[in-house]
Amino acid sequence: MWHLARVVYLGSMAGMLGTGAGGLLLALGRRPKGAELSFHLALSSGVMLAVVFQDLLPEALALKGWEATFLGLMLGIGALLVLKPIFSHEGAKGLIQTGLFLGLGIAAHNFPEGLAIGAGYLASEELGLGLALALCLHNIPEGMAMAAPLLAGGAGKNSTVLLTLAAGLPMGLGALAGGLFGQLSPTALAGTLGFASGAMLFLVFHELLPEANRLDYPLITTLGAIAGICLGLLLLVVF
Q: Which of 137, 109, 124 is nearest to 200 (CA)?
């Protein structure tokens, strides 16, 4: 029981501290707007693309489950497409809704990462701890992605940090599942990773990049996206 509690605590802290740190970093500064907001949104897009194409999808396909990966990908896109009308608003309120919508996608992404922590911890404590640290660092720019539109839309700084913390909670749930069931079937894990990939791709191409381009700083948006991809790849290589 205590062993399982440690796994859940580790996963929860990795998720919440990562996304929460990203939210706190932005909350400590001025509210992003104009070119600064465009850069933050594009940077986060780049990081997410790096994670999807260098981490999530290769891992899913390596499980020899391309069918489950593709099905999960389509389901992830479809789920956010169905939920999108709930978060459709204009103006400042629209930015807040965009931030909340991003939180859903980040939460979907954090669950399979929690599975990896839980299963890794069962294999060895060192592996579980290493995965938790790496994933915590990966979550920082994702927390920033969520916080930027929330703050720009007028959300309170304390509320923004709390919401980014909440987006990391599913990692604890994933760690619980990984700790309870150990190594899930390759097909189930491939589908879960595919679902997270689809959700993130929808967010990048339907929310983050269009919103960044709407601010009319095309060069800043381009440079931010490229910088985000480079940052994401660097984090994946180092950790």
A: 109
Q: How many residues does the chain have?
A: 239
| Torsion from C-alpha of 112, 18, 124, 196, nearest 10 degrees | 10
124-165 tens-digit pLDDT:
787 778 778 888 888 888 898 899 889 988 899 999 999 999
Of residues 83, 86, 59, 54, the one with CA closest to residue 72:
59
Helix (H) or strand (E) holding 21: helix 2-27
- Give the range of the structural domain holding residue 115, as residue numbers without chain letter: 2-238
For the stretch 119-135, pLDDT in tens is 777 767 877 787 788 88
Q: Please report how many Cα atoms fall inside a 13 Å half-sphere around the Cα of residue 105, on the Cβ side.
A: 36
| Among 146, 155, 99, 120, CA closest to 14 | 120
Please count the structural domains in the chain. 1
8 CB-near residues (< 8 Å, 6+ apart): 172, 175, 176, 179
Amino acid at 54: Q
pTM score > 0.85 for this model?
Answer: no
Joined tokens for residue 93: 């309120």
Which DSSP state fits 154? T
In which residue are the tokens 């990081």 written? Answer: 47
| CA dihedral sign, ordered 45, 170, 192, 18 | positive
